[in-house]
Amino acid sequence: MIITLKRKTPDIEKEKLIHSLEQQGLRLTVSEGINFTVLGLMGDTSKIDDKRIQANQWVESVKRIDVPYKLASRSFHPEDSVIQVGNVTVGQSEPIVIIGGPCSVEGQQMMVHIAKEVKDAGGVMLRGGAYKPRTSPYSFQGMKTEGIKCMVNAREETGLPIVSEIMSADKIDEFVENVDLIQVGARNMQNFELLKELGKINKPILLKRGLANTIEEWIMSAEYIMANGNPNVILCERGIRTFETYTRNTLDVSVIPIIKEKTHLPIIIDPSHATGDYKLVEAVSLAAIAAGADGLIIEVHDNPECAWSDGAQSLKPEKFKALVAKARKVAEVVGRTL
Ligand code: PEP
Ligand code: MN
């Protein structure tokens, strides 16, 4: 971190600032120029609040050359993390994971049926929302506890670990007891109280990127979970808001190598919410694997026209199966298995 002090900063003010930074365990180099004094800070600056330093009237600018996160950072933890989800391992050194299932759980039989099809196609985990974050309060809000029970039953029938979205901290016990991978949806990526509580458990968390969040904000949300004690975080890019209206969101493919460079956490891609259109899901999935994603989470439904949510972006099982077969070939090209 580099702090530039204004010309004519009184020595006493310089000394006060230097002393307070040293008190926080940082080492400093001081370069006196004609117009400015430049302080170079070394050590762990992750706890330093840039805004507070900027508030000092003698500070001209504050520039970070490091990052504000630590536990999620590649420099803090050079090896790739491998996250265990039931009997499935997720990470750079592991086979690519394919997760499939409906947007919303719609019933017991439906879940078992789709779970079998997902497994038959090569899927290794089952997704299904029981608590749904819907834009309209009049839309279907999810089967809630009944839905979680349907997911548990589908796991018993197929052996597939289950992924479901949590929306509030008061459901943590229910999720810890029943769900293998707890999803934090895009809308809750910055629900810091929820993130802190999820940090106190050790179940793996699938942290989706917010609708309009920067990569750094997203990693900081992972840091919230990790700083509270839970290192088991998998990131999920699901498209961000842009000016484009042809697709529901815009998939940020470049985020994959960026996340790999900046962090040691696995990253998976959700091509369904990224595009909002079943016709685009396969192309985007293959691109994600080519770019180095550790997995895909895809909405699958037997009868998309009648789905209770997100039918337009859901794949029929046969299309999902064909996608997995192609994805396997792309994985091979980039030196991965699936
Ligand atoms: C979902 O996975 O069904 C979902 C609501 O996703 P997102 O939070 O990415 O919109
Ligand atoms: Mn959905």
Task: Explain what the structure shows.
Helix content is 34%, strand content 18%. It has eleven helices and 14 strands. The protein has helices at residues 11-23, 50-54, 108-121, 145-158, 172-178, 192-198, 215-227, 255-262, 271-275, 278-290, 317-333, and strands spanning 2-5, 27-32, 37-42, 59-63, 83-85, 88-90, 97-101, 125-127, 162-166, 181-184, 205-208, 233-237, 267-269, 295-299. It has an eight-stranded parallel beta barrel, surrounded by six helices. It has a four-stranded antiparallel β-sheet with strand order 2-3-1-4. A two-stranded antiparallel sheet has the order 5-6. β11 (205-208), α7 (215-227) and β12 (233-237) form a beta-alpha-beta unit. The mean pLDDT is 96. The site of manganese (II) ion has 5 residues, from loops.
Describe how the helices and strands are arranged.
Layout: E1 2-5, H1 11-23, E2 27-32, E3 37-42, H2 50-54, E4 59-63, E5 83-85, E6 88-90, E7 97-101, H3 108-121, E8 125-127, H4 145-158, E9 162-166, H5 172-178, E10 181-184, H6 192-198, E11 205-208, H7 215-227, E12 233-237, H8 255-262, E13 267-269, H9 271-275, H10 278-290, E14 295-299, H11 317-333
Parallel strand pairs: 7-8, 7-14, 8-9, 9-10, 10-11, 11-12, 12-13, 13-14
Antiparallel strand pairs: 1-3, 1-4, 2-3, 5-6
